[in-house]
Design a protein that fits this description.
alpha+beta, Jelly Rolls, Arc Repressor Mutant, subunit A, five-stranded antiparallel β-sheet, four-stranded antiparallel β-sheet, 46% helix
């Protein structure tokens, strides 16, 4: 059995996963794949791919479309890469991903059975869901055991995975309707970036958005996936990292310019978000 659409950088398909005489590919397959350090684009696959992170936390920067964010990949978190698309990643250290490759036909059939017009999954990053994690671990255990249950077991998990993805997308779509409108969110982000050196207050940001604090907090979180406090801290860290890489200011000056109380406060937040210290950022620039 061959898979002509399988990216060449993936590990080879184990012989145990190949069903003798099968004329079609499995509806769901799994493989553990090394992820290199540095910047790379995820392989373009003809299947929908869920990438579950395995092992210790790894600070990453990722770009989906025109949006770039920093974060830390945690064990069990996953991202969704729809068939035919790619995501750009920058990793501070090597990592390992458990890749679940789902046939688009299964996703479309599941959508039709649930009365949903499109079975195209939406791209998603750093998602945590216990049911999808369990499907991943079950597929991994099946692969480690040499695929004793053959295709029937994987087919069942494929349908379960597709149904769960549709449920998560439906919930996300409902929440998005209650999110901060894009133009208001853009106004708030621009205000945050312009006033990072100041002591920003929640009612101040809510006023910029034109909402009361009680309404602003959930609307902002639904739009960004983070609380206002967490978002501001991440923007401070991102701007501090950029200034440290630029090399025109000392660490203490960067800390004050980006709104941290002192250099130690910036170091603590940067380590929490990126997994590195300001000194390490400076050293990487020099090297």
């Amino acid at each position: 059995m061959t898979d002509p659409g399988r990216p060449a950088c993936y590990p080879a398909v184990p012989a145990e996963a190949r069903t003798p005489g099968a004329s079609t590919l499995p509806s769901l397959d799994v493989l553990a794949s090394p992820v290199p350090m540095g910047r790379f684009d995820s392989p373009v696959d003809h299947r929908h791919v869920l990438c579950l992170h395995l092992g210790a936390p790894v600070p990453v920067t990722y770009r989906a479309g025109r949006v770039e964010r920093c974060g830390t990949r945690l064990h069990g978190q996953f991202c969704v890469v729809p068939a035919g698309s790619s995501t750009r990643w920058t990793l501070s250290s090597p990592a390992t991903s458990l890749l679940l490759r789902l046939a688009p036909s299964v996703m479309q059939e599941a959508a039709e059975s649930h009365g949903v017009a499109s079975g195209e999954p939406l791209p998603a990053i750093h998602i945590r869901d216990a049911q999808i994690e369990r499907i991943g671990w079950l597929m991994q255990a099946e692969a480690d055991a040499g695929y004793p249950a053959r295709r029937l077991f994987a087919d069942g998990l494929a349908w379960s995975l597709a149904a769960r993805l549709l449920a998560l997308q439906s919930r996300a779509s409902t929440e998005a309707k209650r999110a901060l409108p894009e133009w208001r969110l853009r106004r708030v982000i621009e205000y945050i970036d312009a006033h990072l050196d100041q002591d920003l207050a929640l009612d101040e940001l809510a006023g910029v958005a034109g909402f009361a604090v009680s309404h602003f907090k959930p609307l902002f979180k639904n739009a960004t996936g983070m609380t206002p406090h967490r978002f501001v801290m991440q923007r401070r860290v991102e701007h501090a990292q950029a200034q440290l890489r630029d090399g025109r200011a000392r660490i203490t000056e960067v800390a004050h310019a980006t709104g941290f109380a002192h250099a130690s406060h910036m170091a603590r937040c940067m380590r929490q978000v990126l997994g590195v210290t300001p000194a390490q950022v400076v050293a990487s620039r020099r090297s």
